[in-house]
Amino acid sequence: MLKKAMYPGSFDPFTNGHLDIVKKSSALFDEVYVIIGVNATKHRSFECDQMVKAIQDTMKDLKLDNVYVMALDGLVAEYAKEHNIQYMIRGLRNNMDYNYEENIAEVNKLINPDMEYIYFRAEEVGLSSSMVKELLWYNQDVSSFLPKAVYKIVKKKS
Ligand code: ADP
């Protein structure tokens, strides 16, 4: 059976920290699904379809051929169940991330008890989407924190 994993997140924007987790996952699993969770109540800074396209372009540039990128309006744990995705990937930067993840994992377990969680240790522990947004707000250069294709759309907006 193919080992399938999903890596869900807001990715608003997708950073080099996220990319690092995708690279590690791509090497370990047969198929990796990067999923932007769309939530009508949650405001995004960067448009979802554009971000999907920018992440897809990044995967193409890096020849990460087993990574699929999409947006999902719904519960990721349910989507995983429907599509036989057995693993859920998350990245951990610190104990705050860990505590947050444990809460979500508990809820997801109710929806999909068979899903296994895999946590990857972050290399870029200081990097977050919100930090990038804050730097942008102050007109700082954020090019070193983002994949090229993502930087292009971020720059266009700022
Ligand atoms: P969410 O809103 O689901 O937390 P994010 O886009 O902020 O979405 O993050 C998605 C996942 O990536 C989470 O597991 C988060 O801990 C992880 N992550 C965020 N930034 C980094 C980073 N710099 N390095 C590794 N993992 C990260």
In short:
The chain is α/β, with parallel strands linked by helices. It has helices at 16-28, 48-61, 76-82, 95-111, 129-137, 148-157, and strands spanning 4-9, 31-37, 67-72, 87-92, 116-121.
Q: Indicate the radius of gyration in whole angstroms.
A: 15 Å
Strand order of the largest sheet: 3-2-1-4-5
- Classification by helices and strands: alpha/beta
Output the number of helix runs. 6
The beta-strand count equals: 5
Give the integer mean of the pLDDT values. Answer: 95
Taken from the alpha-carbon principal axes, the silhouette is globular
Largest sheet: 5 strands, parallel
Q: Classify the helix fraction into a percent range.
A: 40-55%
- In terms of DSSP E residues, the strand content is 15-25%
First CA to last CA: what distance? Answer: 45 Å
User: What ligand species are in this complex?
Assistant: adenosine-5'-diphosphate
Q: What series of H and E elements makes up the topology?
A: EHEHEHEHEHH
- Low-confidence segments, ≥5 residues, pLDDT <50? none
Describe the protein's architecture and organization.
The chain starts with a strand and ends with a helix. A five-stranded parallel β-sheet has the order 3-2-1-4-5, sandwiched between helices. α2 (48-61) runs antiparallel to α6 (148-157). The chain has six helices and five strands, in the order βαβαβαβαβαα. With 158 residues, the protein is α/β, with parallel strands linked by helices. The protein has helices at residues 16-28, 48-61, 76-82, 95-111, 129-137, 148-157, and strands spanning 4-9, 31-37, 67-72, 87-92, 116-121. Adenosine-5'-diphosphate (ADP) is lined by residues 9-11, 15, 17-18, 20-21, 90-91, 93, 97, 122, 124, 127-129.
